[in-house]
Amino acid sequence: MAGFWLGPRAAMRGYRLFGYDSIGSTSSEAMASARRGDAGDVWFAALQQTEGRGRRGRVWESPSGNLAASLLIVHEGDAASVATLGFVAGIALQEALSGNLPASALRIGVDGADGLTGQGHAARLALKWPNDVIADGGKLAGILLEAQGLPDGRMAIVIGFGVNIVAAPTGLPYPATCLHALGTPVSAEAVFAALADAWVDAFELWAGGRGVADVLARWRRHAAGLGSEVAISHDGQVVRGIFETIDEFGRLIVRDGARGTIAITAGDVHFGATATSGRT
């Protein structure tokens, strides 16, 4: 059994944890637990997934030594507020990873998708809308939010996190990286403990949906590609323009010189040379 542990703040708040060396999918296990009547606030973490998935049913590779973790929460709020939990997850994951990544290194980003540090300098880590964390221009981690209604009218929400610790997938249409390749020989268990604690802080900022504005403001501070050329592809259509902001609903706002501003609710985002090349 993998040696995962909760951070002190997560343990103090009463979160529970199931750790695995290998599992089909932590998110599937979390949702199955909800259907069995689990009250939530429970993590499922594994060193390997054999049936991991990303957005739109894509396969998420998770070889042994990487981190797959899913959090089950049971919530009574509306679907609109639940959707913003993806941004809560983003700021929690960014915080957990920033504590494990050296601040300075040779930058190798090729997508023009840099966030900013508090001093206004390019950051190694950035949040890429809607659900990725990138480091030095390569995808380091991803988030998947799933929700299902329960018989009592409440909603089971599973937030899945996948972090490339020891290896990154190859053969992708975008660059990917892992913490070890970035010079950080940290373990999946240590990253998980940091994530569990960072989640507590981010979730308390969210405050049952009342703090969405604060969450989005913090997310924007770490956003990749703000003010740069962006291309968003969705269902065979491509929208191009300038990434202006994330609005109060979490939509990506693109300024198109011909059509004004466009609010994007879903899609695959490309920055920099990729955005202007015509290839997405």
UniProtKB/TrEMBL annotation:
Catalytic activity, reaction form: biotin + L-lysyl-[protein] + ATP = N(6)-biotinyl-L-lysyl-[protein] + AMP + diphosphate + H(+)
E.C. number(s) listed in UniProt: 6.3.4.15
Keywords, alphabetical: Biotin, Ligase
CDD domains with a match to the protein in the record: BPL
A GO-annotated cellular component: cytoplasm
Domain spans labelled BPL/LPL catalytic: 16-207
Pfam families in alphabetical order: BPL_C, BPL_LplA_LipB
Gene3D superfamilies, alphabetized: 2.30.30.100, Bira Bifunctional Protein, Domain 2
Top-level taxon in the UniProt lineage: Bacteria
Single annotated GO MF: biotin--[biotin carboxyl-carrier protein] ligase activity
Enzyme class: ligase
Protein name, per record: biotin--[biotin carboxyl-carrier protein] ligase
Lineage: Bacteria, Pseudomonadati, Pseudomonadota, Alphaproteobacteria, Hyphomicrobiales
